[in-house]
């Protein structure tokens, strides 16, 4: 079976600024892949390049065996962007209905999927409230519910848990793991180190360069430290030292 995502040597520049430098990423079925890095590292640009929303300057990207953008593949994936794109004057239910129809969720399944997705993100009680009255965290949760509405095989989630309280974050991660157990895959960006530890595989990215890639356990072993945060700091110092030597 082809990997869900296969990116080879992806490079991207904005003007003179090299934002991605020869990135390789392979996401097979049944895996949670974490992209972790500081603000401006290139995580969102990598995701947009994978989705075909940014044109790359070098390298190749395939999603489910297709070059993006590709409509049939888009229908099989759920994408949660970093900024919420919601209809503020509509209720959450109306938003979910709109996006469900857009994603061609069968009519007889739509209300069941809305209940499932709303329950997952703990919005069942507020489903019929207008989004304009939602807090930032509630909007994040609704965006996640929308990404799940067509029961996608592949989820691409850009900072899905920003503004979400720790208890609900735990629940969301538990659900992501359940989805994974059914063969679905997720590409998730995060700043939060304990979330990085929950991923099956990580790419540490800084200044558009993949500093390190591996399972959390492998990375800690390789860098001889006991946390992903420490791996990051050590890999970053090594990157700085190499730059200094140039
Ligand atoms: N359309 C654009 N035009 C010019 N520069 C851009 C554009 N989009 C992103 N950049 C630059 O590319 C770099 C990487 O941005 P990107 O949003 O991919 O980082 P990130 O790792 O997702 O950061 P954050 O965690 O803050 O979202 C940044 O320096 C950003 O300013």
Detail the poorly predicted runs. none
Sequence of secondary-structure elements: EEEHEHEHHHEHEHEEHH
Count of helix runs: 9
Predict the CATH topology of the largest domain. Rossmann fold
- In the sheet with the most strands, the strands line up as 5-6-7-3-8-9
Bound small molecules, deduplicated: adenosine-5'-triphosphate
CATH superfamily of the largest domain: P-loop containing nucleotide triphosphate hydrolases
Percent helix range: 40-55%
Overall number of structural domains: 2
Mean pLDDT: 92
Largest sheet: 6 strands, mixed
- The rounded distance between the terminal residues' Cα atoms is 42 Å
Computed over alpha carbons, the radius of gyration is: 18 Å
Number of strands: 9
Estimate what percentage of residues fall within beta strands. 15-25%
Query: What structural class do the secondary elements suggest?
Result: alpha/beta
Globular, elongated, flat, extended or rod-shaped: what is the shape? globular
Domain ABC transporter: 5-232
GO molecular function: ATP binding
Pfam families: ABC_tran
Protein name: ABC transporter ATP-binding protein
